[in-house]
Amino acid sequence: MRYIRYGIIGSIAVVLIVVALANRGVVTLRILPQELAELIGVPLLARSVDLPLFLVIFGGIAAGVLLGFVWEWMREHKIRAAKATTERELKSLEREVRRLKGKQNEGKDEVLALLDDAS
Questions:
Q1: Enclosing H/E stretch for 69
Q2: In angstroms, what CA-CA distances link 76 with 8, 25, 62, 92?
Q3: Where are the domains of the chain?
Q4: 53-94 pLDDT, tens digit each
Q5: DSSP states along 32-65
Q6: What pLDDT score was predicted for residue 39?
Q7: Mean pLDDT value across residues 85-109
Q8: CB atoms < 10 A from the CB of 64, how many?
């Protein structure tokens, strides 16, 4: 099983390297088109960066995966909160059961109390 995993990881690495080598051309990234940035009047939005295309592709994939992880984490908040509440209630009920069993077996011999608990 370990070798299958290494084979898959190696295949993915080869595919990523081939994609990177095939997309080495430089592209210009801008936050906004030049005319719109001048119209708004914010010089920071008029900046541009020259990057190889494969970095843009891999950066987009990484940003999408990260956004998906954050989205799922936020979506599952209700589930995690309900689980925490259920665990607190369970611990409280377990403490109450232990307290009631101790109260029921009060004044009895320890061996008899254990026998009563087992049945």
A1: helix 53-75
A2: 30, 41, 21, 25
A3: 1-54
A4: 999 999 999 999 999 999 999 999 999 999 999 999 999 999
A5: S-HHHHHHHT-GGGG-EEEEEHHHHHHHHHHHHH
A6: 85
A7: 85
A8: 10
- The sign of the torsion formed by the CA atoms of 42, 44, 48, 54 equals negative
pTM of this structure: 0.63
Sign of CA dihedral 44, 48, 54, 55: negative
Choose among 41, 48, 9: nearest CA to 26. Answer: 48
DSSP class of residue 28 equals E
The residue whose two tokens read 């232990």 is 98
Q: What is the DSSP letter of 105?
A: T
User: HSE on the CB side for 11, CA within 13 Å?
Assistant: 6
Contact 4, 33 (CB under 8 A): no
Tokens coding 15: 């595919």
CA angle 90, 91, 92 (to 5 degrees): 90
